[in-house]
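Predict both folds.
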Amino acid sequence: MKKRTALAIAGLALLFLPLAAVSENPGHFKRGRFQFGLWGDMPYAKNNDGLKIAALIKDMDAAGLAFTVYDGDTKDGASPCSDETVGQRAIALLNQTRAPTIYVPGDNEWTDCHRLSNGGYDALERLDYIRRHLFKSEKSFGKRRLVLAHQGRLGGPYSENTRWIVGGVVFVGLNVPGSNNGKVDPAHCLAPQTSARTEAQCAAASREYADRDAHNRQWLSGSFQLARKIHSLGVMVVIQADPGFDLPETEGADERTLSQYDGYTGLLSELETQTRAFAGQVVLVHGDTHFFKVDKPLLGQSRLLKNFTRLETFGSPNIHWVRATVDPASRNVFAFEPMIVPGN
């Protein structure tokens, strides 16, 4: 009995090994059925969401989840981007869960902080602050912790791009926020009535977008390469932004061709290429527009990605979460269930 118990504990530990250890030892990798939670875009002060968070956390804790992923926007888009709000309060929120919680940054935490309604901050300074304070450890948030791989050095550029493996599935967190992925339109960057941005900050934002987009695509490509190496059944990519999937919901109009969505074109092109070259199932998770949705968005009527699914999580004022199940015996690998929190 003791020997069997020790083996079981060792097997469970393998599920949560750092990426480097697992990727170098694919033979030690064990597939298995498990569940995890997806949530984000909450709490928003303007909607008094704080009163509902305790019930949400309690509901997720009771589900016995392997981990949860928070897909951005720990505050609303009309409140100051202070250190307390995007730092201390965000950390306190993410550490409430019993299960490990992985954080993906959103636009309300940095991209949009130049807006006067957000306090007129330097957006890139806010991004640097988030990296230094929320990504200074290799571990996740939560009462239990999960060791993550990070693209950049801890606390530095691109440390917010993460990766972890559980039960034969590769999970990827990318800094892809709303407001067109942080890509600025030079002709409309300066807006003194609503924004504190200077010309120098506009130029810096353009450079930052180009560099981050390149790093995001590199991290995404490497994650799929790893998934193929270990013969993974699935890859889940988590971002904050809704990249403008709407075909065929709006007949005769494709949001992906509009300029306010062109900041996602490079990443989505890379995602399409990698998905087509991958034998398993691929899921893109995002928040941003706050409508629970599971679908297979079309890149065009003749370009359906059969192994690609999009999941959009709940968001303020709907303080609920999504339970995801990974089942190696299922042809779809992933299954999703909206969890409506009683009383919320």
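Second protein follows, with its predicted structure tokens after the sequence.
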Amino acid sequence: MRFLRPLYRGARDLPFFVADTILLTVKSPRRQAGLVCLIRLDNIGDFFLWLDAARQLRDFYHGRKIVLVANRTFADFAQTLPYWDEVVPVDVTGLEWRLAYRWTMFGMLHGMGVETVVHPVFSRVFLTGDAVVRILGAENRIGSAGNLNNIAGWEKEISDRWYTSLVPASPEPMMELERNAEFLRGLGLPPKPVSVVRLSEPAGRRKARRFEFPYFVLFAGASWPGRVWPFDFFVQCADEVHARHGWRAVICGGPADMQNAELIRKGINSHQALSVAGATDLIELVELICGAQVLIGNETSGIHIAAAVGTPSVCILGGGHFGRFLPYAESVEGVKPMAVFHRMACYGCNWNCSQPHVQGEAVSCIRSVGVQDVMLALDRALQ
């Protein structure tokens, strides 16, 4: 079946590619002098890891108007930050699957008249980020030379030509914060210490969900069930944290995590835990994590949010992307998550797990992390 994937991808991409080409020939936008567009259409965790680089780009393009084209999952929160003048939210799924939405959104983007576009994503996507660079039609189109994680070789060969400049990227494995710094150096920014962004006071536009009692956050979800620590482990961990510190557990996550969060809440017998999974937007979630004593969670956006707002955190880490997003490199400055893992020979599998496991449950590298491992890491994180 693997040999059919390029055929499927080509058949899916062709109508969108043709529509984009037609749109490019229909009208030519009037370019706005000095207008800079930054593109981030990836996930929430990637966005938070990139924020220190975004701060430096604001300084680099000082005096010029900056527009962020952002995945709508974090666009509202992005509007609260001072690193750009305007945010354009994009439904990434709509770009990939709905031709009418794509045509409307791309028509608007094409008419913006951008002079310089910067697409700093290392693992580029042909049909979304690369296509936005193409449709903007900017005079200067800057991107990362990237890798082939999210793009086929033939797609990259095509979309590389849509850029006027590709910043070289080392083929060696590199933690994402270091990768962002590599891109900035390639743009011509002076080298600076690699650092976690510090959002001292997240700027919510309305009062977020906060609690008067001391609490800790359990982040119960992940993008794939195999990466989710067993819910009974979370329950044991919550009981022990409460016994040691007297804090109450607040369980967070998205709408897809509500069932697992409720299982954890019901399983906690030591105190009255709360679940807000699926009940917070990103602004509220950031405020909630900011007010927590500590966060314990799977490898997901919550861990990177905790680092950005200075909340100690413990991450149950598997081997799929080991070293790219977590653990944070020792050279990185700032509040870093405490990663708990048991290294296995199969690390670096990109979550194509080769170990025996039950479908829909935690894979071996996640399940091998015990409650006491997390509690020991928690003690270190709090120090």
